[in-house]
Amino acid sequence: MQRDHHEQLQLSWQANADAWTAAVRERRIESRRLVTDAAIVQAVVALAPKRVLDIGCGEGWLCRGLAEQGIESVGVDASVPLIDRAQALSNERTRYRVCGYGELANQAAQLGRFDVLVCNFALLEDPLAPTLEALHELLESGGRLLIQTLHPWRAGGASGYRDGWRVETFTGFGEGFSQAMPWFFRTLESWLTLLRQTGWRLQWLQEPLHPQSEQPVSLLLLLSAEQDRA
Ligand SMILES: C[S@@+](CC[C@H](N)C(=O)[O-])C[C@H]1O[C@@H](n2cnc3c(N)ncnc32)[C@H](O)[C@@H]1O
Questions:
Q1: Residue 2: what pLDDT?
Q2: How much distance in Å is there from the Cα of 127 to the middle of ligand 1?
Q3: Which of 25, 56, 68, 108 could be a cystine partner for 137, CB 3.0 to 4.6 Å?
Q4: pTM here?
Q5: Which is it for strands 139-150 and 51-55: parallel, antiparallel or unpaired?
Q6: Which domains are present in the chain?
Q7: How much is the CA Rg of the chain, to the nearest whole Å?
């Protein structure tokens, strides 16, 4: 069952690549436009990194945004068409590579290490522990991991506040989304437990609010490696 979910999730990011690229580049997603894009860019820039790894980079908007701030970044994603879209707009500060999270552990020699690892709405699977453990190898000493995800208190849906698979149909994101995406919902307690168990120490968390509703739109977590004393 979990294998099916994993495959469907990957397939959805191939089938929906054009629709997703249009939704992001035409700034159709209100929560991103009003809140979460700025939140993640500010959080990265505040850390003053030289090199950033954008994990699950999609069509590459965040790498391009960081390049505008003079920050070098590498984006990785399993979706070939999304990486193609990203590469089409790459510049001297951005690099992209097709890479599933399962292959990340073997990439340290090629990609090098990074001051900041970012996962922006890109940790959608279960189990996630192997990915979170593999990320340690890609982090410079004293580096940080930033995760932005849907706010757990807003995203549980009709299934209640319980870990489990949900389905995203991309309603309201525009036309062309031909395949729904399974994704794994985690409660706040589950996120914090998982991160502690995989060697990540919480430095801070933020809950960016929608400017009108004043409800939290996302959960933003800054983490350091447990073994890192820097
Ligand atoms: C919601 S999109 C977010 C894209 C980008 N971070 C952004 O903010 O626009 C999720 C991305 O995660 C990628 N992804 C999900 N699971 C993955 C995996 N196991 N390996 C590599 N990429 C994955 C998808 O291909 C997709 O591009």
A1: 67
A2: 15
A3: 108
A4: 0.97
A5: unpaired
A6: 2-225 (3.40.50.150)
A7: 17
